[in-house]
Design goal:
This protein has 161 residues and is α/β, with parallel strands linked by helices. Helix content is 30%, strand content 24%. It folds into 2 domains: 110 residues, Metallo-beta-lactamase, Chain A (4-Layer Sandwich); 42 residues. It starts with a strand and ends in a 5-residue tail after the last helix.
Length: 161
């Protein structure tokens, strides 16, 4: 558990289900303490008893419920997830919906839809830039004899190099 800014804590735990490390956050710098995508930290649930108890849990996506049930049981927190992800919760989990642009309890602003759109566009642009780098490399080395399969794909797609 590391305080990365005053009142904002970050920790990493190993998630057995996906076999990789995942990140969780505790924010006490707001009027209500909140957790984001939480798993119980190495220090255990009792760590939160020594600090401002969390009142809300925000899921950045529907797969980040993680240890929210345990934390809700201990502190009576309310769990929030974007409305489009609520179909994931079929085992009686109590999860409240939010929309892009909503201000959630604790003064946290949910990712604005336009910002999400720009983020997706940026990812698409990065993919296109990577594809361009590959094509540029192929063109630069064309005289060296590139793989015939790649060459036929380029010709078939009528790509202009």
């Amino acid at each position: 558990m590391h305080e990365i800014l005053p009142g904002i804590f970050h920790w990493i735990t190993f998630h057995e289900g996906i076999e990789q490390d995942v990140h969780s956050y505790y924010i006490a710098a707001t009027n209500l303490a909140v957790l984001i995508g939480p798993r119980v930290p190495e220090e255990g649930i009792k760590w939160f008893e020594k600090h401002k108890p969390p009142k809300h849990i925000y899921l950045t996506n529907r797969h980040h419920y993680r240890h929210s049930g345990q934390l809700t049981e201990s502190f009576g927190t309310e769990v929030w997830c974007h409305k489009d992800g609520l179909h994931e919760f079929t085992r009686g989990e109590e999860v409240k919906p939010f929309n892009h642009g909503d201000e959630l309890p604790g003064g946290i602003l949910a990712l604005n839809e336009k910002l999400a759109e720009l983020t997706n566009l940026k990812r698409e642009l990065e993919k296109l830039q990577n594809q361009w780098k590959v094509l540029k490399t192929i063109k630069e080395h064309k005289d060296e004899g590139i793989c015939p399969q790649i060459e036929s794909v380029i010709v078939r797609q009528k790509m202009i190099l």
